[in-house]
Design brief:
Elements (H helix, E strand, L loop, with lengths): L4 E2 L10 H7 L18 H17 L7 E4 L2 H16 L2 E5 L4 H12 L4 E4 L9 H7 L4 E5 L13 H10 L3 E5 L11 H4 L3 E5 L10 E5 L25 H39 L3 E3 L10 E6 L4 H10 L2 E2 L15 H5 L4 H5 L1 E5 L6 H21 L1 H8 L14
Parallel strand pairs: 1-11, 3-4, 3-5, 5-6, 6-7
Antiparallel strand pairs: 2-8, 7-8, 9-10, 10-12
Helix pairs in contact: 1-8, 2-8, 3-4, 8-12, 9-12
The chain binds pyridoxal-5'-phosphate.
Pyridoxal-5'-phosphate binds next to helix 3.
Length: 401
C-alpha cells in the first residue's frame, strides 16, 4: 500500500509514546495498592494525587471534584443514574447524544423516569429557548453534549447551562469529544458535571473521568471500597490514570497549535470534497465545529461500500457513529438534523488528529472523488437518478486516479 491514513480520531486515538512512557513504571515496579499502609504504596498514592491535581487544573476544577472511571460511557451512566435515582425526577437531553447517554436515558424511561429529547436545528444546535420551554417543575437533570461525535457541532453549553442554573437544575455535559480538543473550563461553562474519556485524546482505552461540582452528590454506580471518596469503588487503575493526566497535559499544551493546523486541513478537505464531488453536502455547522471533523453526505451511494473502497485505498474513516456500524439503521444524529434515510446512508465522517499531515489531506482528496464516481457508475440508484433527471452525468475534474 503506497499510503495509509488514519482519519477516524473521533472513534479513538493512538496512545502517545510519552503517555506510555509515563505509564510504564506503574505497570511494572510500582504495583502497590494505593490504599495500603506500607511505604511501597506511597508512590502509587502520590501518583494518583498528582494526576488528579493535573486533570483538575486543566479543566478549572478542584482535585476533589474529579472521579476517575473506566470510560466515557461509565461517566455518562454515573451522571444520569446517579442524579436521577437520588432526586427522582424528569430528565431533559437531546436527540443527538452519544448512545452512552441516549441508551441510558431509554433505560431510565423503562424504569419509569420521564425523559424529554430536545430537537436540534439543521446544524445540530440546541436552542437555549427550547431547553427552557421543556423544563417542568419536576425536572432534576439536564444532559447536553459539548460537541457531537458524528457531525462535530459544538453546542452553546454556557448559554444552556445558564438556563439550568436559573431554574436550579443540575446540568451535565458529555464532553468526551471536547476535552483535550477545545478549551474547557468547568466554571466558565457553568456545568455541574462533565464526562471525559482518555482514549479520545491520546491515553489508552478504558480510562475516563467524571467532573462533579462540589455539593452535587450523585449516587455511585459501583459500591465497594472507599476509593474515589466513596463515589466509585474499585482499586484504582493507577497506570491508566497517570496516562490520562499525561495525555491531557500534552493535549492542552499543544492545543492552540494543533487546532490551527487541524482547522486548516479540515477546511481544505471540506472545500475540496464539495468542489470535486457533485451531489454532496456538509453536515453540521460550518463554524461551530470541532477542528478535526469533516462529515459529508454523498448522494446516490452507500456509506458502507464507500468505507470498504476507502479502506482498500488505505484510508480509515467512518460512516457515522462506530456504534451503528454493522447495523443498517441510519445515524440518529443525521436524521435529527433533517436528512432523509437515503441521504443519511451515504454519509462519511473523516476525523483528523494531530499526527495527520497535509499529504494525508491531499491523498484523501485525490482518492475520494474517483471512488465515489466508481461506486455511482455501478449503482442502480444513480442510474435511476440520471434517468429521472435528479442528477446529471459528470466528469472528474482534477487529476484523479
Ligand atoms: C467515545 C464517546 C463516548 C464513550 O466513551 P468510551 O470511553 O468509549 O466509553 C461517549 N460520548 C461521546 C461523545 C463519545 O465520543
Amino acid at each position: 500500500m503506497d499510503h495509509f491514513v488514519y482519519a477516524d480520531h473521533a472513534a479513538t486515538t493512538r496512545i502517545r509514546p510519552e503517555v506510555l512512557e509515563a505509564m510504564m513504571p506503574f505497570l511494572t515496579e510500582h504495583y502497590g495498592n494505593p490504599s495500603s499502609m506500607y511505604e511501597m504504596s506511597d508512590v502509587t498514592e502520590m501518583a494518583i494525587l498528582d494526576a488528579r491535581r493535573t486533570v483538575a487544573e486543566l479543566i478549572g476544577a478542584k482535585p476533589n471534584e474529579i472521579i476517575f472511571t473506566s470510560c466515557g460511557s461509565e461517566s455518562d451512566n454515573m451522571a444520569l443514574w446517579g442524579i436521577l435515582r437520588k432526586k427522582k425526577g424528569h430528565l431533559i437531553t437531546t436527540k443527538i447524544e452519544h448512545h452512552a447517554v441516549l441508551h441510558t436515558a431509554e433505560a431510565l424511561e423503562k424504569e419509569g423516569y420521564a425523559v424529554t429529547y430536545l430537537d436540534v436545528d439543521k446544524d445540530g444546535l440546541v436552542a437555549p429557548e427550547a431547553l427552557e420551554a421543556a423544563i417542568r417543575p419536576d425536572t432534576t437533570l439536564i444532559s447536553i453534549m459539548t460537541a457531537n461525535n458524528e457531525i462535530g457541532t459544538v453546542e452553546p453549553i454556557r448559554e444552556l447551562a445558564a438556563v439550568a442554573k436559573k431554574h436550579k437544575i443540575t446540568f451535565h455535559t458529555d464532553a468526551v469529544q471536547a476535552v483535550g480538543h477545545i478549551p474547557i473550563d468547568v466554571n466558565e461553562l457553568g456545568v455541574d458535571m462533565l464526562s471525559a474519556s482518555g482514549h479520545k485524546f491520546g491515553a489508552p482505552k478504558g480510562i475516563g473521568f467524571l467532573y462533579v461540582r462540589g455539593g452535587v452528590l450523585p449516587l455511585p454506580l459501583i459500591y465497594g471500597g472507599g476509593q474515589e471518596r466513596g463515589k466509585r469503588a474499585g482499586t484504582e487503575n493507577i497506570a491508566f490514570i497517570v496516562g490520562l493526566a499525561k495525555a491531557l497535559e500534552l493535549a492542552v499544551a499543544e492545543m492552540e497549535e494543533t487546532n490551527r493546523k487541524l482547522t486548516r486541513m479540515r477546511d481544505r478537505l471540506i472545500d475540496g470534497i464539495l468542489r470535486d464531488i457533485p451531489y454532496c453536502r456538509l453536515n453540521g455547522s460550518r463554524d461551530k465545529r470541532l477542528p478535526g471533523n469533516v462529515n459529508v453526505s454523498i448522494e446516490f451511494i452507500e456509506g458502507e461500500a464507500l468505507l470498504l473502497k476507502l479502506d482498500m485505498a488505505g484510508i480509515c474513516a467512518s460512516s457515522g457513529s462506530a456504534c451503528t456500524t454493522g447495523s443498517l439503521d441510519p445515524s440518529h444524529v443525521l436524521l435529527a438534523i433533517g436528512l432523509t434515510h437515503e441521504v443519511a446512508h451515504g454519509s462519511l465522517r473523516i476525523t483528523l488528529g494531530g499526527d495527520n499531515t497535509d499529504e494525508d489531506v491531499d491523498y484523501i482528496l485525490e482518492k475520494l472523488p474517483g471512488i465515489v464516481k466508481y461506486l455511482r457508475d455501478m449503482s442502480p440508484v444513480w442510474e435511476d437518478a440520471l434517468k429521472n433527471g435528479q442528477a446529471k452525468e459528470y466528469e472528474l475534474c482534477t487529476a484523479i486516479k
